[in-house]
Amino acid sequence: MSTPDGTADVLLRARGLRVDYFDRAEPVHAVRDVDLTLYRGETLGIVGESGCGKSTLVTALTRLERPPAVTTAGTVHLHGEGPPVDLLKLTERELRALRWERVAIVFQSAMNALNPVHRLGAQFADVLRLHRGLSRDAAWRRAGELLGMVGIPADRVRAYPHELSGGMRQRATIALALACEPDLVVMDEPTTAVDVVMQRQILRQVARLKRELGFSVIFITHDLSLLIEIADRIAVMYAGRVVETGPARQLYADPRHPYTAALRGAFPPLRGPRREITGIPGSPPGLRHPPTGCPFHPRCPKRFDPCDEQVPELLATAGGEVACHLHGGPQEQQHEPRSTNVPG
Ligand code: SF4
């Protein structure tokens, strides 16, 4: 997907992104120094347990963060025709012009995205009339076509959200996100509220639509196995940092970071042979007082001497990056693991 100079196919590039919560005297660092690149036509999965900063990261990438969260450092360049624009420098008015048209978002709860007192068609028509200048009749017709694209009969445009099943509502929000043919669709846990069968149906539909329409996807989830179904590359987050990135299948087959390995063990794959599920001991650290050194060290079965003192840097590996003293850095060495601080 990338060109030899690594830039021509870039759609979104974040550098040094930092988000702090200012709800008390001392700021809480919720996202720390995150670098991410998304290529055109690519699906980038972002995975981590609740509280690891993935949703905060996404709201910062899309400028949807609300107080007390504040993006305090970094750049988020959206590439297209002409020079890239730094989303963090745009005014609210400039952002409004860009939302739906270039960047659309699908949230976990369809009921938050859909207005319960308006028919589906009216909600699609609002977006299409404002951003595409369609007449009322043309907008309602287009709404029916968009619903058809996600497998919902076109005549359901007249339905209210509560008249649809949960799966249909979520598919309707995906159709709504695609209304203006954006370059990027950000999906924040879009299948968490539906059952496994519907989950797979939605993933298949998103993959097909992406192939047909050519948009890129950032897909947030806590379930690493889900990303194998849909992502080209994966970024794993822990305690507000990216701790591993890599091509999806490679990262799943051969996780380098012990946290990635633990996530893999915690969720059964949707396909393939049955595997024993192993939980991750303990819980993610509070961001107000994160552990010293590697933030995963209190839970890590492979921790060794430098882990509780030195923060590992994110370093390049074959095909990706990893932030762990076991890999790549001067600390790489044979070692005896020490026991974890939490019961298994
Ligand atoms: Fe485990 Fe140490 Fe690697 Fe952290 S740096 S993940 S504690 S081995």
Tell me what the structure shows:
The radius of gyration is 21 Å and the shape is globular. Helix 5 packs across helix 6 and helix 6 (166-177) runs parallel beside helix 7 (196-213). The protein has 344 residues and is an alpha/beta fold. The protein has helices spanning 54-61, 92-98, 110-113, 120-132, 136-149, 166-177, 196-213, 224-230, 248-253, 258-266, and strands at 10-21, 28-39, 43-47, 69-78, 85-86, 103-106, 184-188, 216-221, 233-238, 241-247, 315-317, 320-322. The strands form two sheets. It has an eight-stranded mixed sheet, sandwiched between helices. A four-stranded antiparallel sheet has the order 2-1-4-5, with helices on one face. It is built from ten helices and twelve strands. The chain binds iron/sulfur cluster.
Please render the helix and strand layout as text:
Elements: E1 10-21, E2 28-39, E3 43-47, H1 54-61, E4 69-78, E5 85-86, H2 92-98, E6 103-106, H3 110-113, H4 120-132, H5 136-149, H6 166-177, E7 184-188, H7 196-213, E8 216-221, H8 224-230, E9 233-238, E10 241-247, H9 248-253, H10 258-266, E11 315-317, E12 320-322
Parallel strand pairs: 3-8, 3-9, 6-7, 7-8
Antiparallel strand pairs: 1-2, 1-4, 4-5, 9-10, 10-12, 11-12
Helix pairs in contact: 4-5, 5-6, 6-7
The protein binds iron/sulfur cluster.
Strand runs, count: 12
| Distinct bound molecules | iron/sulfur cluster
| Largest sheet: number of strands, sense, barrel closure | 8 strands, mixed
What integer is the average pLDDT?
89
**Beta-strand residue percentage:** 15-25%
**CA distance, first residue to last residue:** 41 Å
Discrete helix count: 10
Helix content: 25-40%
Shape: globular
- Tell me the series of helices and strands, N- to C-terminal: EEEHEEHEHHHHEHEHEEHHEE
Across the major sheet, the strand order is 6-7-8-3-9-10-12-11
